[in-house]
Amino acid sequence: MAWVRDKPPTMTNLNQVGDTIDCRELATRYFGQPAQKAGRAWQWYCPFHTDHKTPSFTAYPDGYHCFGCGTHGRPVDLVIAMDFLDYHSAVRHLLDMTTAAPAWRQPRPAPGQRRQAGVEAWREAGWQASTWRLVDQAAACLAGPRGGPGRAYLQARGLEPATWQAWQLGYVPEVRRCRQEAGEKRVELLGPAITLPWTNGRCVKAVQYRLLSHPTRRYWQKAGGDRTLFGVQCVRGQRGGEARRPALVLVEGELNAISIWQAAGEGLDVVSFGPQSNIDHVGGLMRRLAARYELVVVWADQMAAALNAQATLGRCAAAVCSPGGRDANDLLVAGQLDGFLHEALAGAAGGEGSHDQRLH
Questions:
Q1: Which residues lie closer than 8 Å to 224 by C-beta, 6 or more apart?
Q2: How far from 139 is each of 77, 85, 127, 147, 267, CA to CA, in Å?
């Protein structure tokens, strides 16, 4: 790969590294082969917002610019944005990258495919690659020197480091949201966030941000995802004709699922259907998953949502309401989650169809 336009980067002044790296080759390392080339300009579907018809992220030898969301910068700025590094760390990372082979490249659409199908396949492959990078880099950031605020938040919510790793949680120091205002596209800074990846272990379905300091918004979702079921990668239920697992909890909210998983240990599987509004969207997946278990409990903040999910699953599930407005994570912090789970599972195993569980 021709990383350097003129000569190898042997300069001692690190501030000059951005003038010697070809930004087009750098973008190829991050996003795979460009969707199209036009002379000195190479174009990709933008990783910072959702492109709909044509690629708008354009890289030149000395920098990049997106004609959709307006993001732009030099090669070092692209490294800062993609790897969550400060300036000096990004410069050193650029120098290291010039001597390393690219980790992956996504192929362009194969000849003979219909153009639209090829473009969609290319976009999905590119989205998967860039989103896995986000998941991996956010996890590294959470464990690194910049992840202190994220670690403090998770510890305050009663979650342990082993749980963070099992659920691939991460930390992003600054979430950027692209939006249109007065006919112009602007980038809104949403502050730091915990990343909650919705993945089945092979593909990322969505990435949800739990915003830590935004004054009005608690969550934001990365563009291009589709929330299905959260936590499938941690499910141990058997497939096919093998023995069914004892119990499954389907719960509202990602942090609630993580909290139950930590409290329950090996004897219980847990998956989240996300917010109440997502129940109808994932009904078929919930039914197929529930069929693997002897006992299924649906837990939501409000009984109406729990009954809605129960109706989606049929008679195989028992519905449980959060006690006194406290969700699973609140109970974990209060040291009461084990007791509530024991009561809920015992009540469901006893044949009661729905329960308004309350701890006193």
A1: 50, 127, 131
A2: 21, 13, 18, 9, 27
Q: Are 193 and 212 in contact (CB under 8 A)?
A: yes
DSSP H stretches of helix in 144-172: 148-156, 161-166
Burial class (CB in 10 A: 0-12, 13-18, 19+), 209: buried
Instruction: List, for residues 127-158, the tens digit of each pLDDT value.
Output: 777 788 889 899 999 999 999 999 999 999 99
Separation of first and last alpha carbons in the chain: 66
As a whole number of angstroms, the distance between CA 177 and CA 191 comes to: 10
For the residues 331-351, what does the mean pLDDT come to? 87
Cα separation of 132 and 142, whole Å?
Answer: 15
Kindly state the tokens that stand for 234.
Answer: 């941690």
CA dihedral 141, 48, 99, 22 (to 10 degrees): -150
Ranges assigned E (strand) in the chain: 36-38, 41-44, 57-60, 63-66, 72-73, 170-181, 184-199, 204-211, 219-221, 245-252, 269-274, 293-300, 317-321, 354-355
Residue of 313, 357, 322, 182 lying closest to 251 (CA atoms): 322
More confident residue, 254 or 238: 254
Both tokens of 322, joined, read 């959060």
- How many residues appear in the chain? 360
Sheet with strand 245-252: strands edge to edge:
269-274, 245-252, 293-300, 317-321, 354-355
3-state secondary structure of 52: coil
Residue 210: per-residue pLDDT = 95
Contact 179, 189 (CB under 8 A): no
Report how far residue 219's alpha carbon sits from residue 212's, in angstroms, rounded to the nearest whole number.
9
Strands 317-321, 354-355: pairing is parallel
Residues forming a β-bridge with 220: 209
